[in-house]
Amino acid sequence: MRHVFATVAACCLVCAAGSSAADPYPFGFPKEDARGGVGAFRIWHADGKWHLRSSTENSTGKKDVLMVFSGTVRCDGKLTVEPGKLEARGRVADTLKATADGKGFDFEFKTYGATDEAVFRAATTAKTLTFKLKIDGLPAPPYRVLVGEKSEHPDKSDFKLPAHPKK
């Protein structure tokens, strides 16, 4: 009897360790504002493309503080990225740079009462996207990362999503 209990307990521990909350549903633009009237990342998938947007347009004191949204997006396959809305000069100049291996990009968006955006597409053979997001040099609090039309949040600022999500 003790052997059966130990086996069941071990299986429960393995199952609990391997399980995680479902990935946020990425389809549709995240409409909800981040709590506290602060800037946020908005991430969504539409028409075969991913969108990563930094946003402070609805923030309290939005013209008082420059916010810096930065990070990386990596893919287990090839990925193409293009700028959406980015500034090229001055205090709010943004950077968006594809990695040398073509499997991701690094970015720094300086957002001041507006939005900045990268649009990217993963190769058909790709399985996973890995996001590492920061706001003002610190890991982005999950409540400031809004994914899909339900404005769901990942568990932490470093998270993964399927490269080709299913509706």
Question: Can you summarize this structure?
Answer:
The chain is 10% helix and 40% strand. The chain has 167 residues and is mostly beta strands.
What does this structure look like?
The protein is mainly beta. The chain has one domain (24-162): Immunoglobulin-like. The protein has 1 helix and 11 strands, in the order H-E-E-E-E-E-E-E-E-E-E-E. It has one helix spanning 2-18; strands at residues 40-46, 49-55, 67-75, 79-83, 95-98, 104-111, 115-122, 128-135, 138-139, 145-147, 158-162. The strands form 2 sheets. Strands 3, 5, 6, 8, 9 and 11 form a 6-stranded antiparallel sheet that branches. A hairpin with a 5-residue loop joins strand 5 (95-98) and strand 6 (104-111). It is globular. Mean pLDDT is 83; it is low at 1-20.
Could you give the topology of this structure?
Layout lengths: L1 H17 L21 E7 L2 E7 L11 E9 L3 E5 L11 E4 L5 E8 L3 E8 L5 E8 L2 E2 L5 E3 L10 E5 L5
Assembly state (oligomeric)? single chain
What structural class is derived from the secondary structure elements?
A: mainly beta
The main pleated sheet reads as: 6 strands, antiparallel
- When the domains are counted, the total is 1
Radius of gyration: 18 Å
User: Which runs of at least 5 residues are low in confidence (pLDDT < 50)?
Assistant: 1-20
Strand composition percent: 35-45%
Quick tags:
167 residues; mainly beta; Immunoglobulin-like; 6-stranded antiparallel sheet; 5-stranded mixed sheet; 11 strands; disordered N terminus
